[in-house]
Write a sequence for this structure.
């Protein structure tokens, strides 16, 4: 009787892949989706505090003014904008367009840089409004 043949298969084949920008964009799309799920907790806290009353809302505003939470909010907004733009990119792909290497690369950069620009513009508006309201 012969023993059964054992095959040695890699546990994680992605480790042997050559890095490509599409891998980074795919990972970033998934990471921003997860980040939005976590960021939804901050949004829920803010909405519950606003609905609870003035004291709870003031406490939430104080929490959101801390530097760590501000960084998290900026990351959350970048996640939203990147996930949105990359989702539009995927919809275009679903329609059968944009698969050419040059077009796919360009649309990836548009999604990433567009998210950076939209995040900066959003926070420019938010901080400008809060500074204008304080005066």
């Amino acid at each position: 009787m012969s023993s059964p043949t054992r095959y040695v298969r890699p546990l994680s084949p992605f480790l042997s892949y050559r890095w490509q920008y599409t891998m980074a964009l795919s990972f970033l799309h998934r990471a921003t989706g997860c980040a939005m799920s976590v960021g939804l907790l901050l949004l829920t806290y803010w909405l519950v505090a606003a609905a609870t009353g003035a004291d709870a809302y003031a406490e939430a505003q104080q929490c959101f003014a801390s530097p760590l939470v501000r960084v998290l909010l900026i990351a959350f907004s970048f996640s939203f904008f990147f996930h949105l733009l990359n989702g539009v990119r995927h919809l275009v792909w679903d329609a059968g367009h944009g698969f050419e290497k040059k077009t796919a690369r360009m649309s990836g950069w548009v999604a990433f840089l567009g998210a950076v620009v939209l995040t900066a513009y959003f926070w420019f508006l938010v901080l400008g409004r809060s500074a204008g309201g304080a005066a």
Observations:
- The mean pLDDT is 90.
- The first helix runs from residue 21 to 52.
- The radius of gyration is 22 Å.
